[in-house]
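G., the chain you wanted modeled:
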Amino acid sequence: MWSRFGAWLDLMLNALLWGSLTVVGGVVVPMLFILLSPKALAGAVAGELFVMESLLVLGVSLIAILRRTWTLWIKALGERSSLTTILWAPGLNVVLSAFMLAVVIGKITQSEPQERALWHGLGSAVYALMWLLSAKQLSDFARPKA
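Predicted structure as tokens:
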């Protein structure tokens, strides 16, 4: 019973993560820039949303790593190859979200206007990569276990 609940919880958390990244990055932020004036206000609100999204990616990816690691260690101690195969996506998501929180968002808010476009572009690329990795995490958890 607990293993089925754990599998369901993993799937729901990863579905929440991917859905949240999709809605915020694909719908909410573009609508902010269409509906809010001045654009600086839309940018400030979008920045706060990206902080929250990065924290969500960090949290769910850490949970995925811990759950998967624990499950594999319980099943087969010493099987390192399968462990690294399924942990690369959440592991990279942890690194990217920490980078987004520690570097990119700070640089966007503190940089000169001429440098801001570079950091916005980098932030958008990191966000897109987190979205792709979250889709990979979701598909890993949604795939039936053999």
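The helical segments are 2-35, 39-75, 80-110, 113-142.

Shout if anything looks off.
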